[in-house]
Amino acid sequence: MSYDPNGKVVLITGSSRGIGRETAVLFAERGAKIVLNGRDPARLAETVERMHSFGDSVWSYPADVTDPEQCRAMIDAVIARYGRLDVLVNNAGVSMRGAFADLDPSVIDSVTRVNILGAAYPTRFALSALRASRGSVVFISSLAGVRGFAGVSIYSAAKMALTGLAESIHAEHHSDGVHAGVLFLAFTENDPDKTIMGPDGAPMRITRKASTTQRQAAEAVYRMVERRTRKTYLTASGKYLVFMQRHFPWLTDAVILRSKGSIHRARRQNSSQ
Ligand SMILES: NC(=O)c1ccc[n+]([C@@H]2O[C@H](COP(=O)([O-])OP(=O)(O)OC[C@H]3O[C@@H](n4cnc5c(N)ncnc54)[C@H](OP(=O)(O)O)[C@@H]3O)[C@@H](O)[C@H]2O)c1
Fold first, then answer.
1. Residue 122: CB within 6 Å of ligand 1?
2. What is the pLDDT of residues 88-140, one digit of tens each?
3. 8 Å CB contact between 212 and 185
4. Is 98's C-beta closer than 6 angstroms to any atom of ligand 1?
């Protein structure tokens, strides 16, 4: 039977902007009821306003996904409002740049908390509702979650952890009808004001040219839910990386070492543009 998103309840963490917001728009266009999330209530209100054409199909719940009690309250609020949850997209995340030896411990802490705990807590509290709906949980990872590169160490480690979490959830809940998938995104178009963390925790802008649009990323999330896909790697280069990493790891190493860290270049926010 083909997938019908009409009336399904979809919670997307970190959807006040960026890829999460575009994913929300796409599911809303296809008839789903959307719960937006982020920490900043003003930004969430702006996003709800931006999506006003979908009427009361769009609702928002401000919560910090690194706080288990806020995650529990968010899932309880979704169930109280809609009586069900069909899709959880663990999208909230934060990236960083810098050599591991230079990282302030606060960067290690933040990147780990948002990317790992910020996916684990919502999932933990959503599982009984997802079991009831035989729904989906999708984790938004990165090609840095396939392979470690210079400059993105702790981000890479955190995104790799999502694969383990998704595989364990699959092992524990497949028989309950729960689908757990991981989407490995390539470098994706950013909102103009997006920043990531520099080695000292200060905001940095990213200069690299995107290879994927936010819409393409959102379409990939939708397809994973529709087809209940376990793993999706975006872009031909991403698929090539997976192939090379699996069959020719020594060659992959050689290419990455030869790049001398140029793959993840970024500039400080206040440095000359
Ligand atoms: N952009 C890329 O090139 C790329 C590539 C590979 C993977 N990804 C992954 O894709 C996801 C989305 O990336 P993006 O570029 O769209 O990010 P973004 O534009 O920086 O948006 C991040 C979203 O997450 C929210 N957020 C951050 N920390 C949160 C927290 N503790 N609790 C709740 N919400 C939080 C933000 O809102 P508030 O700040 O208001 O909380 C915002 O809505 C991330 O997981 C990222 O790692 C991105």
1. no
2. 999 999 999 999 999 999 999 999 999 999 999 999 999 999 999 999 999 99
3. yes
4. no
Helix (H, G, I), strand (E, B) or coil at 191: coil
Q: Which CATH superfamily is domain 9-268 in?
A: NAD(P)-binding Rossmann-like Domain (3.40.50.720)
Q: Domain extents for the chain? A: 9-268
Q: Give CA–CA dist 59/30, Å, rounded.
A: 16
Measured in whole angstroms, the distance separating CA 1 from the mean position of its chain's CA atoms is 28
pLDDT in tens, 163-218: 999 999 999 999 999 999 999 999 999 999 999 999 999 999 988 889 999 999 99
Amino acid at 109: D
How far is C-alpha 59 from the geometric centre of its chain's CA atoms? 19
Within the chain, strands assigned E span: 9-12, 33-38, 58-62, 87-90, 136-142, 179-185, 196-197, 203-206, 231-233, 266-268
Q: How far apart are CA 125 and CA 65, in angstroms?
A: 11
User: Ligand 1 center to residue 80 CA distance, Å?
Assistant: 26
| 0.90 surpassed by pTM | yes
